[in-house]
TrEMBL record:
Binding site for S-adenosyl-L-methionine: 47, 78, 99, 140
Species of the source: Sphingomonas aliaeris
Family according to the record: Belongs to the methyltransferase superfamily. UbiG/COQ3 family.
Designated name of the protein: Ubiquinone biosynthesis O-methyltransferase
Coiled coil start-end: none
Length: 249
């Protein structure tokens, strides 16, 4: 069963309507590993590896446990059709998935139902959560698509419970990211054209300043790199894409 919920509404929003519409057109293919979201499917194992590291470090977990998030709540902002929400639910969390595109939320609810998972999916903006907080807040490859990155991060920070963990990932604004994600990704791979605007990419220094400006403390940064032999891997190289983890100061 999937919990029913009303769409989140708030006049103050960091949603970019054009971006929401663009990603909404991808809803039907979100769970197809060979479709327009193929790159996200390739990224997901690396994302989950990093998240598991940070979860175990934050809550002193046993890395052999199948449910390290048991008894905890998680919010994924910009969840699409649930590629991250479903694994978080299987790790034991009570999961809320939030996305700007109602089409994605509809696809997410259907897929969760077929998977036998109870996930609270909501269409709307992080600014409309009305004070609800979560132990884990994630927003992966999303901040580069919002209208106001600082306002967006303030919303993420407001949704973070005391003792909670925030994990954000985004492309770096480098020549490598332009080549990989736009020239190659949108030119020859299956990433739909117009998905990325290189000018909206944030450097690690910029994102750190935004997160700290929202009252949080950055405790870890890690790169997401591509290896011809191994595919996407975690690394110390932040030039392509990177994760930032933060806690409340």
């Amino acid at each position: 069963m999937i919990s029913a919920s009303v769409p989140v509404t708030n006049p103050a929003t960091t949603i970019d309507p054009a971006e929401a519409a663009h990603f909404g057109t991808m809803a039907a293919e979100w769970w197809d590993p060979n479709g327009s979201s193929a790159m996200l499917h390739k990224l997901n194992p690396v994302r989950l590896r990093y998240l598991r590291e940070r979860i175990d470090a934050q809550w002193h977990g046993d890395d052999t446990s199948f449910t390290p998030l048991a008894g905890k709540s998680a919010l994924d902002v910009g969840c699409g059709a649930g590629l991250l929400c479903e694994p978080l639910a299987r790790l034991g969390a009570a999961v809320t998935g939030l996305d700007a595109a109602p089409e994605n939320i509809a696809a997410a609810r259907i897929h969760a139902g077929l998977s036998g998972l109870e996930i609270d999916y909501r269409a709307g903006s992080v600014e409309g959560l009305d004070g609800k907080t979560f132990d884990l807040v994630t927003s992966l490859e999303v901040i580069e698509h919002v209208s106001d990155p600082a306002g967006f991060v303030r919303g993420l920070a407001d949704a973070l419970a005391p003792g909670g963990l925030l994990v954000v990932s985004t492309p770096n604004r480098t020549a490598l990211s332009r080549l990989a994600m736009i020239t190659i990704g949108e030119g020859f791979a299956k990433i739909p054209k117009g998905t990325h605007d290189w000018d909206k990419f944030l450097t690690p220094e910029q994102l750190t300043a935004i997160i700290e400006g929202a009252g949080l403390t950055v405790i870890d940064k890690r790169g997401l790199s591509f290896s011809p032999a191994r595919g996407f891997v975690l690394s110390d190289d932040l030039k392509l894409d990177y994760f930032v983890t933060a806690i409340r100061a």
